[in-house]
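Worked problem 6 (solution included).
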Amino acid sequence: MAVREILKMGDPRLLRVAQPVREFDTPELHALVADMFDTLRAVDGAGLAAPQIGVDLQLVIFGFTHNPRYPGREAVPQTVLLNPVITPLADELVEGWEGCLSVPGLRGLVPRHPRVRYAGQDLQGRPIEREVGGFHAVVVQHECDHLIGRLYPTRMTDLTKLGYTEVLFPELAGVDDD
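Solution. The predicted structure is:
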């Protein structure tokens, strides 16, 4: 398959609302997902949304066993999620540091729900529903934001908590360079 170019903040395609996936288990969809995983692995990402590579579909992938961009974070199961719906399991928000492949070199302190339920379909169109917490919940919320045209800085409540990864986390210097 192929490693695709990841769009960067400022590209208007990242601000669009993605369209639902209506046809499942097609050769084109399988090829797209394979390209997305190739791209994700090439940049050590935790997740990737189709709009980040210029594809206007409600499709996200995520998952890893170990990620040098997020050392010490628990593993997240490899998932292909189409037409997702996220439901917070409490009103509480917890702030955590996030980065984004479309906002390379920066990290910001972002409020997220610590536990969510997500539902959607897998690549074959079968239903998926999970209740998750921790980093898994953060990753799925972050990726699904891309489907509604949002990047994590638009979720931040204090922009003084946005900075370069190499300054905020010197131990990660070099791993966030996309």
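Discussion: The chain has a mean pLDDT of 95.
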